[in-house]
Amino acid sequence: MMKRSKLWYRFRQQPLMFIGLAVLVVLALMALLAPWIATYSPTSINPLARMKAPSAQHWFGTDALGRDVYSRVVWGARVSLVVALAVSVVSLSVGTLIGILAGYFRKLDMVLMRIMDGLMAIPNILLAIALMAAFRGGLLTVIIAIVIPEVPRVVRLVRALVLGLRNQPYMEAAYALGTRTHKVLVLHVLPNLFAPLMVQATFIAASAIITEAVLSFLGVGIPPEMPSWGNIMADGRNFLSLAFHIILFPGLFLAMTVLAVNMVGDGLRDMLDPKLAGKL
């Protein structure tokens, strides 16, 4: 009973966060169960069913090649969620390591931060397009292309946090007791980075989903044979006046996913730092 009351209290405090979580859980289940809930093969071509409107047979209609849009949208959820999760984990891992080194070791700070500033000077979409053009397209290449522009943002956040932690009294006490550097980092620095990094992870995930969709829409992201929300919309852009549904449904799922991730991020921010609640 106590757990239920606490959960209800949390829901009343952050209803949008729980709604966002519920949407993400449904999307994750949809991606995992894609082979069973998709009504057709996402790559199955049927010239006789080209650009059909939504119906009982084709829930979201068909595209210019007669492929079922609903099945392609369901399978496309896998790509977006995998990219979001992979980019968040890799960006946070690499960015946290570099940020700690830059914030804690003064000799490395100048070199590392100048490299990060150089990466941030290049627009992330242009950098991702250049990387996709230099290497063979695919899911792994897309993830790497999105990770590289995201790492400097994590590094700057972690570096600022570490610089603030260095002068805390408990850090000075640890130095006075002769605690080794690696223990100080593990026991005192990393735990204090957890909350802001969890919030940052949600924003990275939302940005990664949008960037992947943009790259796929431009034809430099996920290969056409692998359905993603971006290349589904790219396939339908030439038939906008004839079959608006080709772009409508993947666009709705893309917007809904990004909105849900941002709702979770805002809720986490308010829960972990109540002073910010209602200010942004």
From TrEMBL:
Keyword Cell inner membrane in record: no
Key words of the record? Cell membrane, Membrane, Transmembrane, Transmembrane helix, Transport
Where found?
Answer: Cell membrane
Give me the segments passing through the membrane: 16-38, 81-105, 125-148, 193-218, 239-264
Return the Pfam families for the record. BPD_transp_1, OppC_N
Q: Which residues form the ABC transmembrane type-1 domain?
A: 77-265
Membrane association type = Multi-pass membrane protein
Q: What family does this chain come from, according to its entry? A: Belongs to the binding-protein-dependent transport system permease family.
* Protein's UniProt name: ABC transporter permease
